[in-house]
Structure formats: C-alpha cells, structure tokens
Amino acid sequence: MDVIVADLDGGSISVPDGVSLPLLPEPLLSNTQEALSLILQPELGSADYAFPPLAVRAPQPVMLDKEIRAVFMRAFAQLLQGYRSCLTLIRIHPKPVITFHKAAFLGERNLIDCDFSTRVLDCMFFTSFVSERGPPWRPCDVWDELYSNFGELFKLEVQDSRMLLMHIQELAQQLYTNENPNPQSYAQKILVPPEGAFARIHQPSFRVINPGQVQAIIAEGLAKNNLKSRLASLRPMQPRIVPTGQHISNLNDHKNIVSNSARRLEVLRNCINCIFENKISDARKTFPAVLRALKSKQARLALCNELSQHVIGNKAMLEHQQFDLVVRLMNCALQDDSSMDEHGVAAALLPLATAFCRKLCTGVIQFAYTCIQEHAVWQNQQFWEAAFYLDVQKDIKALYLPRLDSISPRLGTDHILATPTSPRDSKDFAWQNRRSVISRVQEPSALEIAAEQMRLWSSVDSEKQKELITSEESTLYSQAIHYANRMVSLLIPLDIGNRLHKQDHSLDEERASNSIANRYVV
C-alpha cells in the first residue's frame, strides 16, 4: 500500500518506493534547513572557522521542542504570506462564509508549478485553516502576530543573520509560556504517616470507609486541579480585527518588472482607442505589436481594463471590423493565459463577452462569447466557482457601503462603518456614481467591512438582522442565476446539434470498425 508512516516514538518517516514527495519551494527550503541547523546542530555554523569559538550554544531539552515548532511556524508563515489577500467573502450574516482564491494566490506568488504548494492548498488541513482563521473578527493568537509581522522580521534577518536565532528563540519562549503559564512547578501533596506510627504496640482498629465520602473528596480534589476549569476562570481573549499583514501584490514586485512595459501599454491603449473610434487602418498598423505584448500578464490585465471602459450599460454594439479585432484580442489574451486563470484575465473578460456584440441582420445579434468558447478555462469548475464568489463579494461589499449623502470627504473609515447600513438603501445609487465620492476616502476592503459588521451584530435589533440576512440571500441567488446564464453562454456552443451528430457518426464508425476488426480476428 502507498501509505506514508510517521513513527512518532522512533522519530522516523517511512515513505514507499512508489511515492514521490515534493520539496518545499525555494528559498523557503533553504531558509528552513538553515533555521533547523541553527537549532539542532549549532556547531555547524562555526565548523569551518580557523579559530572556532570556545563555547557553542547547547540547546535545552525543554526548549528544543518549542524551537523546532517555532521554525515550522515560521516556515508556514512564509509559505502562506499574502493568503488573507486572497480570502473571498461570500456571506457576513448570520455567520461569515469565506473561501480561498487558490488560483490568485498561486499566480501572485509565482507558485503555479510548485507541486508542494498546490498539495498544501488542496488538503483538508488548509480548508479547516481557512474556515477557522478566515473570519476577520475573532480572538488573535501568536500565529496571527507572526504572520502580520513576518515581513518586517525577515528584513531584519536579511540585514543581520544573528537576528534569525533571536526571533526563533522569542517565538519558542511564547510557545513555552502558553503551555506553562505558571513558572512554579506543580507538586502534588501526599499525606505521609508520622514517624514511629508503625512501632506502636496497640494499633487502633481501621475504621470503615464511607465510599460516598471518599468519592466526594476525590471529585473535589479533581475539580481544584482541573486545568480546564482553571483556564475557564481566566479572562477570555477579546475578539478584534485580524491583522491582514503584507498584501500579496507587494511580495514579488521585483520579479514582475518587464522592460519597456510602459511603452507597450501605451501602444495597446492607442490601438484600442483606434478600434472604438473606427480608425481600423490605424489600429491594424499596431495590431501585431499589441498581440506580441499580450504575452505579459500586465498587458492582458490592461487590455481587460481598457475594453471595460468602452462598455456603457449592458451592451456595446460594434461594427463588423471592430467586432473582429476585439474578439481577436480577447482570444489572444485567453490563449496566452492558463486554464487556472491565476491572473484573473478570464474573469475580467467574462462580463465583456456578453457585452460586445454586432448586428448580423434584422433581429439577429452575435455576441462575443460565441467566438471565445474554445478555451480550456471555461471547462474548469474551480474558475467558475472563484469568479462567482468574487462577484458575490463585490455585491456584498456594495450592500454595506454607506449612502453618498451621508459621506463627507473628511470622514475616515471608522465613520463610514459606524452602523450597519440597510442594503436596500444602497441600491438607490449606481455603483459607478458612488466610486467617485468613496475614492476620496480610503475605501474599506470586504474583510474590514465584515469585521465591523460582526462587531456590531450583537447590538442590532432582530428585525434589522433579518433584513440583512434576507438581503444577502437575495444577492447570492441573483448572482447564481446570472452565472447560470453565463455558463450556458460559454459552455454550450450554438451548433451543439451538429457537433452531437458528428460525435455520434464518429462513434458509429468506431463501432463499425471495431466490429469489422473483431470479425476478421475471429
């Protein structure tokens, strides 16, 4: 059987020959190995010195376990840096429902080809991790502080390598303090008979023991020494806003620099403007350069942004040549992207595919989605789930943003989220009109809005709570219907009847050939 056995008593792991375990991505693997060598074998750091130091730090047995745990806590904090930026909020009330955008995390961290990271994100451990630690309003612990401060700690360790061991020891001390809050060791008191008690000539008769009284004394002693009761008597940790840490888009900025990117994006913008101004000849001059520029992620995202600015309302009617060029750009962007849609290009093109159209004849309109159905991303169920959850999050966020007439440009985020806003009130204003005013102040994220709503939930009356729950449910159902129509548009081709007929015909030919072959074999 292909089963990996971990022997905790013997300290060994047995891996079958047919199982290959992926390694941690670099530089995480090297950093973890270096940290473990500092803890387990500190003498290796000075083994090559001509004059080694006289004294080498000897690890204490009590703290060795905590230091090893601290190393692996830091390893997972480094591996999951930016994960809170990829949390998608689906519901706030009555209980928050949060999912994780796996493709966006792998794309932003450049871990698409990392088998280890993919397996970690797919395992049940990470699913429970997101459900437990995803809510933005809850009691925080050592892990949350480590995750939020890891970027600053890592910068200090790069400047001074001695800080690495110091940070590991500080984290290990916190773990030890959590497990041993009382510095005094507990010693159980056992009654001992006095000296000379057994040398007495006249031994008194032993009294009959009352079993009920003995059991009561035992229960009383257990209650006094019960760890759970002592922990329950302590003051519980108060919930607060969970620190988001460093944003995932700021982790790999130095790796995503593209030469002449500004010039390429300017050519892309001019080409799209020429297309929508119906200057087809000018657009065709720079069209090959634009297609080459779409090899980069920044150009594909810029294309989606530029195309969305030319959509007014729910439909954008184009001329035939305009439609052909726009569809070709969309196909090129989807072709250069993967089926996971780790950069969000397909999700950004999804509403545009049902907006751009052209008139073929009287009463016949062709939409752009009929020309981009062949890409593999539409067959990926995880893409549809992630795109659906992102749009639900946008609508949930819009529900709780305040009305325009109650916003002053001088107010901060705390004033914006002072009280829960009725979702019905926010529907009176268009989202495009609101952004110009809200952009004057720092617009809160979906997790920040959820944290504030969760904080105020207990102070809201029951009627208001029912109204908020009903509004979120209606938002979720409306998006589900909307995405059902989108999936039908992109997954079911217009000539499905002809394709099924061709498939049946090919199957009949295969059956006929198989029967003929079998007949000749017999």
Put simply, the count of helices is 21
Radius of gyration from CA coordinates: 32 Å
The strand line-up of the biggest sheet is: 7-8-9
Largest sheet, described in full? 3 strands, mixed
How widely separated are the two ends?
40 Å
InterPro entries: dDENN_dom, DENN_C, DENN_Domain_GEFs, SBF1/SBF2, Tripartite_DENN
GO molecular function: guanyl-nucleotide exchange factor activity
Protein name: UDENN domain-containing protein
Domain UDENN: 1-140
Question: Could you please describe the fold and organization of this structure?
Answer:
- By secondary structure, this protein is mainly alpha-helical.
- Among the domains are: 24-46 and 57-179, no CATH class; 257-379.
- It contains 21 helices and 9 strands.
- It has helices spanning 28-40, 61-79, 102-108, 115-122, 124-133, 142-159, 162-179, 211-224, 227-233, 261-276, 280-293, 297-308, 320-336, 345-353, 381-400, 413-416, 423-426, 431-438, 446-456, 462-491, 496-521; strands at 5-7, 12-14, 87-91, 97-100, 137-138, 240-241, 316-318, 356-361, 364-367.
- α10 (261-276) packs parallel to α12 (297-308).
- The longest helix is centred in the C-terminal third of the chain and has 30 residues, at 462-491.
- The two termini are 40 Å apart.
- Residues 254-259, 403-441 and 504-522 have low confidence and may be disordered.
- It comes from Photinus pyralis.
- This is UDENN domain-containing protein.
- One of its GO terms (biological process) is regulation of Rab protein signal transduction.
Summarize the structure.
55% of the residues lie in helices and 6% in strands. Among the domains are: 24-46 and 57-179, no CATH class; 257-379. The chain has 522 residues and is mostly helical.
